[in-house]
Design a protein that fits this description.
homodimer; TIM Barrel; Lyase, Ornithine Decarboxylase, Chain A, domain 1; 2 domains; 16 strands; globular
Amino acid sequence: MGTTPYLRLDVAVLDRNIAAMADLAAAAHLSLRPHAKTHKSLEIARRQLATGAVGLTVATIGEAEVFADVCDDLFIAYPLWVDAADAHRLRALAERTRVLVGCDSFDAARKLARLPVEVAVEIDSGHHRSGVQPAQAGELAARITELGLRVRGVFTFPGHSYSPATRATAADDEAAALAVATNSLAAALVPARLVSGGSTPSAGFSRAGVLNELRPGVSVFGDAQQVELGTIGFDKVALTVAATVVSHAGGRVITNAGSKALGADRAPWATGYGRVPECPDARVVALSEHHSTIEWPAALPALGSQVLLVPNHVCTAVNLADTYVLSDGGTWPVAARGRNS
Amino acid sequence: MGTTPYLRLDVAVLDRNIAAMADLAAAAHLSLRPHAKTHKSLEIARRQLATGAVGLTVATIGEAEVFADVCDDLFIAYPLWVDAADAHRLRALAERTRVLVGCDSFDAARKLARLPVEVAVEIDSGHHRSGVQPAQAGELAARITELGLRVRGVFTFPGHSYSPATRATAADDEAAALAVATNSLAAALVPARLVSGGSTPSAGFSRAGVLNELRPGVSVFGDAQQVELGTIGFDKVALTVAATVVSHAGGRVITNAGSKALGADRAPWATGYGRVPECPDARVVALSEHHSTIEWPAALPALGSQVLLVPNHVCTAVNLADTYVLSDGGTWPVAARGRNS
């Protein structure tokens, strides 16, 4: 129990989700390196590592600094631009843990030269964010090697899996792109020991032996996006935002969990700003900073009652809070909250 | 300077914005009670109070607890549902500062009875979030008075001013609704000493003498929503997110300021996920947690260079960070960050 709104974590569901992803990766003969940006929690990281994760993925040096307390093999899966202060931090980090850093340009690689890190070349497999085209990976890898840096392999994020239209095909795109990239590295005489991909929506799809590592994040908790994409049902949602009904204005349910608790993420295909497991037909039709407005096609929950809301995107919801309130009454800190750099 | 991404605050623009809103309120013979949820900063609150604000507006008890350090007249402009723990906190708060609390139901008012607070009845003036219909305000006010609570008056948030189609008319709706509500209270023999409204987009429109208090929040900083609504130009934007260009993938600018730095807010009428003052034709076409993807119809800024991005909604962007980095190199804490309850 806490004062609403707060993050409520069902630890039994969390443990089942962690085990399920470990089993999925093992069955597919893939190493598992969960993305810790989702949970930002040392306790959850320890559970992932205890069930077979080979290491952790993080997004920033700041997150790596936090997770080096519990993990000795970190992948900053991001095309870092490293200034002098960052270089100092990476040197200190490398004394605590093995460090792999993403890269998609020779200019960025030059800033990494002489640092005690390995490099993975980022590939664009269809999400069209960062990353080089797959066929260009070998040339970049060779140039990075000439800087004296060790290239461990290639990675991509098939982020276009976050769409009902391309969820099923994103894994195919990912495998095809990584196969081209791997061959490109081989042609440049840089062996790709690491071939890393994965996202929660695409994790369950086959990649026909191309990848050797998966980096899912959201699967540890689940969220409304995953429910609406069809990846999971509400029974696999471990993290909710506990909210109090504060008004029935307009015949709707107004709770005190707004965008500062749920996050404002809303994909074009989302049906609202979150979901309500106890009333699956309910829709969060509007979100202010401290209000969610819910159309609730059933008897309204009483003023003052608590409801559990599922955020659309759990990574950004978690980053708004300092504490998880566990289903057994304990708490865990969101240790890496706000570690954006 | 800081490590990107970080909140960059131009204090000269901030001071001009504070003075301009004070002047606007004074010219309209309105008391000014700025909403501190926008900035969550004691330093900024002091500046607002020093230039004539009669008090501060906050959204939660937690924010009130922070701002009671610098202000002795706080309005929690929210329909609180007060449980036993909240009641304890409100009693402690009332020993430090005058406390006014919003209310839109008799059930919620009963939870406030016997607490040392005054009550303002919330009215729906067209935003259709919380609040009673204006003509019902008197009946609710009379019933609240019978509980032994003192009703100070009525308030509304004309949130439909956040739309190009209704920005200009929202102030008319607000004034009409508050006039009806004021008359409704008078008919119920409850004088409305407070008639409070206001939002940043509607602040500059006339209300023909109905209101006596304005509660704008965003005006202190400005943001991309205000620019796109036509409330301000980029010259009045005091708060930006400093970001580093990390990739040119796809011929676009990818920076390290994503939704965990800018916030994910995007109104249906927004042109993207933020704006770029140095390139007004640029559009932030996609946002991940740690990437913004910017279509930049000019020579791209070099890899590693810094760009200043204007978040769509500054209130949620500020709530993601712990520190303001001032244009003169100092820092201020975001003291009330995460105070959601």
